[in-house]
Amino acid sequence: MPGMQLDTASPHDRVRAFRPAHAAPPSTAQGSFRLLGKDYSIRFADHCELLRTRTSELVERLYAHRGLYASHAHATAQTGQTTLAACDSGGEVFGTLTLGLDGATGLLAESLYGPQIDAVRRAGGRVCEVTRLAMDPARSSNEAIARLFHLTFILARLVHGMTDLFIEVHPRHSAFYRRMLGYREAGPECICPRVGAPAVLLHLPLHDAEQRIRARGSDRSLYRLFMSEDEQRALAERLLCPTALLS
């Protein structure tokens, strides 16, 4: 297209530019952090006992409603994990997900899809995953879902320098993630023992998500509801500077 500039750098090389070499690790412990939306806010739950309890209760309730076993509903906060909580104006949690970074024990999804994830890792990818995703359909909105996933992208890509995001979903939900967020199917249908139901592995190269964010509004996906690049940059800078979260 006229005026378009091509970015020819490798996605795995380009990610180095997102995080200064000597940047302090991001802090998600500050209770004052809020990402504000229309009648809701998104907060970090890891270091707030009340939010941890409410996110666990939400996961347990919504999974049970679908006949799923939420063995991981009350998982304790761990290094390399960040749990986000979408709260209404009264402070009730209506949505949550956990971003898990690769570490010594790998990703949870590797219990079923180890070869698929390790192939990305061996190719130079820095892998991470979304787990414990739950959205109350009676109270959530497309905007809230979009903001939750945009903050996940910012944390994974711009703050932690990850390149590839995985998620296990029920096969009947796969089309939604592929259509609305650009995920690709990466592993066959299996029975996930953590929930006692079928699952498929989906993979989102975060460079692809970055391109979709730049083209925000050009399709009917959830990316049209993401924040602007200026807002994204400002939020990433805020998360990379823990002292700013106190303001």
Automatic annotation (TrEMBL):
Cross-referenced SUPFAM superfamilies: Acyl-CoA N-acyltransferases (Nat)
Domain of life: Bacteria
Domain N-acyl amino acid synthase FeeM catalytic core intervals: 56-204
InterPro entries the record matches: Acyl_CoA_acyltransferase (IPR016181), FeeM_cat (IPR054597)
Protein known as: Long-chain N-acyl amino acid synthase
Organism: Pseudothauera lacus
Upper classification of the organism: Bacteria, Pseudomonadati, Pseudomonadota, Betaproteobacteria, Rhodocyclales
